Amino acid sequence: MARIPIFLMALVLFWGAIAEAEYMKYKDPKQPLNVRIEDLMKRMTLEEKIGQMTQIDRSVASAEVMKKYFIGSVLSGGGSVPSKQASAETWIKMVNDFQNGSLSTRLGIPMIYGIDAVHGHNNVYKATIFPHNIGLGATRQVNILCQFLIKQTKVAACAKHYVGDGGTTDGINENNTVISRHGLLSIHMPGYYNSIIKGVSTVMVSYSSWNGVKMHANRDLVTGFLKTHFASGVSLSQIGRVLTGSPLHPMLTTHSPFKLESLLELTWQIMVPYNYTEFIDGLTYLVKNNFIPMSRIDDAVKRILRVKFVMNLFENPYADDSLVNQLGSQEHRELAREAVRKSLVLLKNGESADIPLLPLPKNASKILVAGSHADNLGYQCGGWTIEWQGLSGNNLTIGTTILTAIKNTVDPSTEVVHKENPDSQFVKSGEFSYAIVVVGEPPYAETNGDSMNLTIAEPGPSTIQNVCGTVKCVVIIVSGRPLVIQPYMNSMDALVAAWLPGTEGQGVADVVFGDYGFTGRLSRTWFKTVDQLPMNVGDRYYDPLFPFGFGLTTKPIRLRNAHFVKFS
């Protein structure tokens, strides 16, 4: 009789053990965050951990690759798209296919999808392209930025590039920033303080150097300062580079313990877009041969998992298709158009406030629109749009060029003549009421934007001289930064900095023709000559063409006569 209770007790204990084995705390959202992380960590193999530390490019990813190598993250760099002019549905299917591969692994750890979104996810065809950040800064209106960003959900932001890459010698990409520690912390670091306080999940380390030391090799600033003081999230290496900026491939084939250990000491997820198998093999070798301690791997993986848990990826791993119809929606385009209007900075308006040129009359008999940037959507959108370096022309996405916006705005009886680079004789014989000249610089990204002269792209200068020397003209500069314009100031009747306005060129015409007033203010100092650079407010010899914060204002025509004010 006594054997039956013993048998039943053993059976209960057996099934209890089975139930305990099947219960995985990391999958339970009711468990505390640290409990979930620790539970998952103790279940992971070295192979699974290294996979989580690996970020690969979309072009080499597949469900099979995600499953086989336990890949933790996939990246779409500039121009890395599922297919040309891919729809939102195509993007979602691609991401979810990758995710299926991740979820089919033994532990089902979801991958995180990364976008090289320097000014929004502008890889997507038909997306609304907002003004670049320099233009958004000129609005001086936080509410615009909030409306633009507040609706973004399930996004883990990245602050980059840590630290000082905005102060390199001659402004050259990946160059050396020469500054004291006090200067670095007081000038270049505050943006990271604020970003981390506001909740960014990742920080990307820069290719640049500080006083000759590569940031990827700067243990003091990355591990000592960033990690110790205020970063509980993930630090990313830049794409495929270590220490000297050399590719990962030769480093890993020689299993250099110094280089890779140093990198791992500083960063927690490694961007190895293409040679990921060599990275995985090399890191596995170094850990198994005790060049890199397991504690370093565990620290990195815990931080990566923390971001994924906080984002609720374990509960909601798939891309949301409910927002598909919002891509390029009228609501988004109207908001971008408003941002364009408020980002425009009026730098000159006639020889005096008593005789302004702007706003322009809509009912002129005949007007000239000239310049390489008047009818070029790619130039308006700049770099990091559809392609890494951006594109020229009007076929890259959907939008409104400045020329089209002008035609949409003027009176139907007004004849609009468009000639990209007219000679002076053409202008003289045209009997134009006034001219609008739109010039600037072509799209660029990163090193391709390095310039020692910062001049308006040809034939822009000759277009200005040919047109503005003959007829009343307003010049609109389309650029991602201040350019050399002092030599042409006397020939211009009015001058507008439009920055890189994006797809909604109608916002430019809204203000130029007086439906709205100019309100933008310079978000950086506009120099006279490049010899003055770098130039900042507070410099002992601060003698700019236009100071930081400068901007003339106008009132809309409907508010009677235009009124002009100069911000001090």
Automatic annotation (TrEMBL):
Keyword Transmembrane helix applies: no
Taxonomic superkingdom: Eukaryota
InterPro entries: Cellulose_Degrad_GH3, GH, Glyco_hydro_3_C, Glyco_hydro_3_C_sf, Glyco_hydro_3_N, Glyco_hydro_3_N_sf
Signal sequence interval, chain numbering: 1-21
Keywords for the protein's UniProt record, in alphabetical order: Glycosidase, Hydrolase, Signal
Annotated Pfam families: Glyco_hydro_3 (PF00933), Glyco_hydro_3_C (PF01915)
Name used for this protein in its record: Uncharacterized protein
Organism: Hevea brasiliensis
